[in-house]
Every structure is written in C-alpha cells, then in structure tokens.
C-alpha cells in the first residue's frame, strides 16, 4: 500500500483491511448514504412549491449521485475531483495523487470517506439552485425528534445541576464541584451515543455521600481511557486566568448538539470558562455533523411543543441558552480545515492560523469519533500507545490543551493504560467490539507541554 499520507510511526487503516470497520463501512454503508441523498433530493424536488428550474436541475444532480453510488458498488478507482469553483479542490487532488492508485474498497478509510462527502458537495456546488441545500437535514431533524424523552429528561437534569452548581459554589464544596463537572462532561460524552442510561443522575446530597462516588465510578466503567482527573486538575490550577475561552469542535447535530450546548452553558455557569466558541462544519459532512444552519434549527425544534410537548423544564432552559448566544458568551465559527481530507497532524502546516488560535485557547474539546480519528491520524496504533504520542504534532510541546470526548465507533483507540486491560476488554467484547460498538468511550486529555 502507498504510504505517502501516513505517519512513519503508524499505518492508517484501509478499506481493504479484512475484519476492519473500515472495510465493513465501505462495502455496506457508503452506497446506502449516497442512495439516501438521491432519495432526499427527489423528495424535496417533488414538493408542490418547488420552482420548475430547481426541479429540472434535481434530475441532473440525482444522475450524478447515482454515478457515484455505482462507482462505489463496482469498486472503481478514486479519480481527481472536477473543479467546482472552490479553492480546496486542488488540495484534494494533490492528496489523492500522493496516495497513488486506489479504489473505493482499497483506500485509506479517512481519506475515502471525506472524499465521498466532498464529492456530494461538489455536485451541489456546481448547481444553481441547490448550492446551500443540506441533503441530510431531513434525517437530522427526524432523529432529533425521536430523542424526545432524552431531551426532556436532560432539560430537567440540567436545571438541577445548575442549582447544585450554585449551591456547591456558595458553600465552597470542592468535591461536589468536581463531581458535577464529571457528570456534565459525561453527559457531553455519552450524548455521542444518545445513551443516558450510562449516566449516574445524582443529587448534590448524593454526590457528597459514598454511594454518589460509587455511582460515578460505575458510570465510568466503560471509559477505557479516562483522564477526567487530569482535566479537573488543569482547570483548578489555571482558574485564575483572566481569559478562559473554551473551544468545542462539534460532532453531530440534534441530540448530541443539544448536550454540547448544555455543556457550554454549564462551563459558563460554573465559572470554568469565560466564553465558549463552537466550531461547525462549512457544509453537510458525515451525514449528521453540525453546520451553521443547525444552530437556529436546534432552537426551532426546542421551541416547538409539537416536537417536545414536555415544556416544564425546556421553557426554563431555552431562555438561558439563548441569552448566552445573544450576549456573545457562546459564539459559533466555521473553518474550512474541518472539511478537508487532512488529519489534524497536518494542521500546523495546512491551517497555521487555526493552529495558532487553538494554541491560545484555554481548552479545546473535540467531540465524537471522526474528530478522534483525525486527532490520531486514523492510525492502527497499539491500544496502549499514549494519547500524547498518537496526537503527533498536536501532542508534546504543541501548547494546545486537547480534551477528546468520544464514544468508540471505529478502528482506532489509544490510551488504554495496560495490555492486561486491553486483554480484558477483548474478552469482554470480542472481535474488537469495544472499539466499534459505541458502548465504550474515551475521555482523553493532553496539556501540550
């Protein structure tokens, strides 16, 4: 296999690798994703209020998407992307040339998957009426509404945590402050799996008792690399800094984004952060990643009693969240680097301005599996490899304080403390299930010193 885009210390997982999630995804999921976009375009174009020119253009878009699907199903070579007027096309084609000859079922997984989403967007960019269309919005909205019970439960829990946080601050209960931080961090973590059953859900009174700590410990059992104590120690040691901007590089829209916004609000309410900046993707990416339009869409859904009829706590939470956005305490930004094929190891050279911004950040939180894959170069590292080493240029002496909150849904996982722990996990969840099924997770922190 060509290695031009790989770190000399680690090989990237390829879609041809037997037994890998990469191979399974390329063979079974990619064509279905493309078919979903075809169906979505067709459904939108069929609406009565759609302009005739837009409807006619949808036919050409569907034909182009069907061609991609066919190439995937027939394992055709990856070919240079035609120009769509965007500056990044040249970078994509340079990287493809560096990889060398490859096909859909025989390419670096990370590049191939990114290439697929950029191919979809290239077709939309080349149109007149569909350039700003989100082919995944219908799916994102449907999934979010299905999370009704979790959203309403979490709104209730958040208001309790706000009250507990204030009480803990007023009474200087340091242990309680830490345990509340752990719980809110775990909410943001498991929001990636939409599985609130993995949370402890404790009252402040519980948190001060032994059983509270035991419940927290139980909820952390499936976190295979857990640096939460190190994160808290860093935050406590640096709490006197005047500017404490936290950056959150987002993952999925809908329920997970709701948990991320709650987490941002908590960090402000607790005085941990002075401002929070949320990083979205510039265009529809990996089906459900947050794009700028998903921010207002979140509030539109939360405001809807049809989507979320349990209003008692939502009507308390929503104004608090809106106030943070309106005041500028929470802001959003998009950088084109997030939708490139590059791993984050290339950030210092490919996006030096972004890298410098993150160096000045108080803490950079990367959410979800794709961000974790890019942080670790999607490499087949031994699982006991340190997180710092796997971060490469973003690790030791990078001056970027990085926290990854990720439920395990791919082939890469580092930071497991010992080989005996790896062996135990392999016995508990055979066939690599613990790095793929979303029921295990990492809370990985590196201070970049």
Automatic annotation (TrEMBL):
Organism from which the protein derives: Aspergillus udagawae
Domain Damage-control phosphatase ARMT1-like metal-binding: residue ranges: 25-423
Enzymatic class: hydrolase
Role of this protein: Metal-dependent phosphatase that shows phosphatase activity against several substrates, including fructose-1-phosphate and fructose-6-phosphate. Its preference for fructose-1-phosphate, a strong glycating agent that causes DNA damage rather than a canonical yeast metabolite, suggests a damage-control function in hexose phosphate metabolism.
Keyword hit for Manganese: yes
Biological process per Gene Ontology, one example term: DNA damage response
PANTHER family named in the record: DAMAGE-CONTROL PHOSPHATASE ARMT1
Pfam families for the chain: ARMT1-like_dom
Superkingdom, taxonomy of origin: Eukaryota
MF GO annotations: metal ion binding; phosphatase activity
UniProt-recorded name of the protein: Sugar phosphate phosphatase
Enzyme Commission numbers on file: 3.1.3.-
């Amino acid at each position: 296999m060509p290695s031009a885009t790989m770190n000399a210390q680690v090989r990237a997982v390829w879609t041809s690798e037997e037994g890998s999630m990469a191979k399974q995804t390329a063979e079974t999921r990619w064509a279905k994703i493309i078919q979903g976009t075809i169906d979505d375009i067709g459904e939108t174009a069929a609406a009565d209020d759609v302009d005739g020119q837009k409807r006619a253009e949808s036919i050409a878009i569907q034909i182009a998407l069907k061609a991609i699907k066919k190439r995937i199903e027939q394992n055709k070579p990856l070919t240079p992307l035609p120009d769509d007027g965007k500056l990044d096309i040249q970078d994509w084609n340079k990287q493809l040339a560096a990889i060398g000859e490859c096909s859909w079922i025989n390419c670096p997984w990370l590049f191939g998957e990114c290439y697929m989403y950029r191919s979809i967007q290239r077709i939309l960019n080349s149109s007149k009426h569909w350039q700003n269309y989100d082919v995944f919005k219908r799916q994102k909205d449907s999934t979010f509404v299905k999370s009704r019970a979790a959203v309403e439960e979490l709104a209730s829990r958040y208001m309790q945590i706000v009250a507990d946080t204030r009480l803990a601050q007023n009474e200087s209960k340091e242990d309680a402050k830490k345990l509340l931080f752990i719980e809110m961090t775990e909410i943001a973590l498991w929001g990636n799996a939409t599985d609130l059953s993995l949370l402890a859900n404790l009252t402040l009174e519980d948190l001060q008792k032994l059983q509270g700590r035991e419940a927290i410990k139980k909820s952390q059992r499936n976190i295979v690399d857990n640096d939460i104590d190190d994160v808290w120690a860093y935050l406590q040691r640096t709490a006197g800094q005047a500017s404490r901007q936290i950056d959150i590089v987002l993952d999925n829209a809908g329920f997970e984004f709701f948990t991320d916004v709650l987490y941002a609000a908590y960090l402000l309410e607790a005085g941990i952060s002075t401002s929070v900046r949320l990083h979205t993707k510039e265009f529809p990416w990996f089906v459900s990643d947050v794009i700028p339009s998903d921010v207002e869409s979140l509030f539109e859904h939360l405001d809807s009693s049809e989507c979320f009829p349990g209003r008692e706590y939502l009507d308390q939470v929503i104004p608090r969240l809106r106030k943070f956005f309106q005041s500028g305490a929470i802001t959003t930004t998009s950088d084109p680097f997030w939708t490139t094929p590059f791993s984050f190891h290339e950030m210092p050279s490919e996006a030096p301005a972004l890298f410098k911004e993150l160096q000045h950040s108080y803490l950079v939180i990367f959410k979800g599996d794709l961000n974790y894959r890019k942080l670790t170069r999607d490499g087949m590292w031994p699982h006991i490899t340190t997180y710092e080493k796997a971060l490469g240029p973003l690790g030791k002496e990078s001056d970027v304080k990085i926290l990854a909150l990720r439920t395990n849904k791919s082939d890469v996982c580092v930071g497991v403390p010992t080989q005996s722990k790896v062996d135990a996990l392999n016995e508990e969840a055979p066939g690599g299930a613990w790095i793929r099924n979303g029921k295990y997770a990492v809370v990985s922190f590196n201070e970049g010193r």
